[in-house]
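Lab meeting minutes (informal)
Scribe: AK
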Amino acid sequence: MRAVSDDAPLLDDLLPWSVAPLRLGRTWVLAPDARTLRDRWTALTAAEGRQREELFVPTRARSPRSGAAALPGQRGATGRFAQAPGAFPEPVRVLAEPFDAQWLLPDHRLIDAARPELWRVWDEQQVFLVESGAAGVPLVATSLLPAGRTGRIRPLHRRPGGAEPNLAPGLLDLLGERYRCWVTPEDVLSWALAAARPGPRGLEVPLPADAAGWRAGLERGHRLLRVQLAGARGGEPPKLPGGRRPYVRAAVPERPGELSYDAEAAELRLGTGVVSPVPAQVWEFEAGGGRVLERWFAARTAHRDGAGLAALGPTRWPQEWTSELLGLITTLALLTDPAAAGATGATADVDADADASDASDADGADGADGADGDADGVGHTRLAHLTHPSDHIGVAELRAAGVLPVPAAARRPASVLDHQEEGPGGQFALL
């Protein structure tokens, strides 16, 4: 009898169209704050000749003499940068690393491999699944365009407006018939968030054979999705129950020297600044090759040791970064704390992003709901009932139903023919 890992479908089969991460080619096009990007653009466009060339950081793919098509959905110059830089491209919010939102200059001439097919389907209905490289949370969901150091990217929809799901053809019908309910594309994405696990063939997503198992995992998956989207698409931001909410106990200095953690006091320290309570599991949370909090802080102090345009950055710690940090701690706490896992909905009595001046309310009542018994936390799901081949829908059944193998066309971007996009030098491209 085959082991479950030999028969569970792969994420690559359930959401077959995936795109490699963007390759920026130069670090200065990405920054934790939009004002820095304007300063860098101003410095670059003011430079001339060899100095501009050096500041640009040319690569084989891009140099000041390169033209490029406009990124879909963005208004940017397409002529050679050396001849006509054009107007400042308004920065867009992107996912730079798992759980780290930053800003990007959306100018195709500045990005080595911008993956226009992703920009083409990025809208208010889109959700991207990103492989995080972390065992506990192997997938991250985001409404932002993943544009930094991330893993492979899988859009939920293949066309703008959510017109076509990025799912194996026939999968929704099969699951709906098996579970006797209406199954949506977002249900499948949520299930993948809850159930995906590393395997020898890649990320596996076991599908339960019974409706009860589907409902239990789906509830957890939707909770994961709400937490990770963090209030995007009109939803409520993640919340923690009273008494567990992080607050600024000592103001972050203008130039915090280093980030450290006091496990005994459950305090995160940014130089002389103090944020607490911060559970140990939040400090230890890893994704993208290291601790999330350490990588987040490093991204906001990297300009101090940078060179060229990358050395331009805030001289003082912006207040909005502190607010972002509180939100990040809240998200990681909800992903790792079993007691807080049930408190992600409207019943929680406090928001994640209140100002530090509310610190006097930190000792509020503990309003956490109980967590599900089969979880180590909302982000660490144990699907103990899917340990035997008869407990799940295997590859053989998916093949028999015609869901697998996935047609080659489903692994490629969908054709988009309803609008024009400006190519290099102002020419329009046919898609």
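Next up, CB showed the second protein from the same session:
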Amino acid sequence: MDSSNRLGDIEVTDPKAMRALAHPVRLAILERLQRHGPATATQLAPEVGATPSVASWHLRHLAGFGLVRDAEPGPDRRQRRWEAVARGFRFEAPVGPDDGEGRAAARALSREMFLRGESAANRWVDDTAPLLDPDWLRLSGLANTGIVVSADELAAIEEEMERIVAPYVLRDPSARPAGVRGVRLLRYFLPEHIEEQSSGTAS
């Protein structure tokens, strides 16, 4: 596996695929399949705020870009089950002079993902945090740290974070110790524009 993609994410490079993903229902469907495994359109519908027929349409759209696929049939073989192709996905904005469409598509997808991340964080504060026992609550929360680094240094930081997280992402469920629970890691890397920087120190 490429060391720059230790988590085995699917690489989304087609601007049309980015545009397809920049939709709240499709992102919700893909996230649900990645986190909880195969499901039918009927099972997904109430969780993503759509009717079964609309969920099915979005699933076919995602399949057209290779993001989901048919899963092994369940007990009810009359219903089509779907699964995510990979545990996660990643993308980056093209940088070429003729890549305006790709950059616009990447911005649209980034915006939708930020909105989804904000919503997930708000739900956690309102619904989950009050139910956590003290040990888990103490380990939760967020940090907002500004740093001053070169592009190569930022890439090294991201690589090191993925190196640390990868064994837990890829671990077989049978190897998990007792007392585990799902934990959402939201990682934002937000380089500032040069005009936003102060006198050479992190804010």
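CB comment: The longest helix spans residues 100-128.
No objections, moving on.
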